[in-house]
Structure of Phosphohistidine phosphatase SixA:
Amino acid sequence: MKTILIMRHGEAVPMQVNDEARPLTERGIKQAKEMAWWLKGHFKPQAALVSPYTRAQQTAQQVLAINDFSYVEICKDVIPTGNAAFAIDYLETLISLNEHLDVWLVVAHMPIVSYLVEQLCPGNSPIFNTAAIAVIEYDEVTQQGVFKSMNSPSL
């Protein structure tokens, strides 16, 4: 069994012409930091796929600063308009190629974070608060996940 953690970025500034460049707000940075400590205390993620968008990168920076990762990749498949089925196929391939890594984190955006959960755990398509993390137990043999919980920052 593996653990897959799907995380939405922290609170970002309002929509702009260049959506990719929207940074986190002060609150978003605090949310990301709070959840980084929560991850360290509960899961200690080892590998991460992170959207290239600024707000996801800034969220991941908070998590990476506190947790020890042995594999991190910027992944264009987990942008807001990404194809969730394609992204999960890619994640499953990475999991099979890195059998020694048991806890995977994906840092992305609405709506794809909900679609990723749906792909792994059919019938579950949660709405994510900013910096929220969905916890999934994943059986790499059956390629099926079990949605365990949704965890949000207190801020």
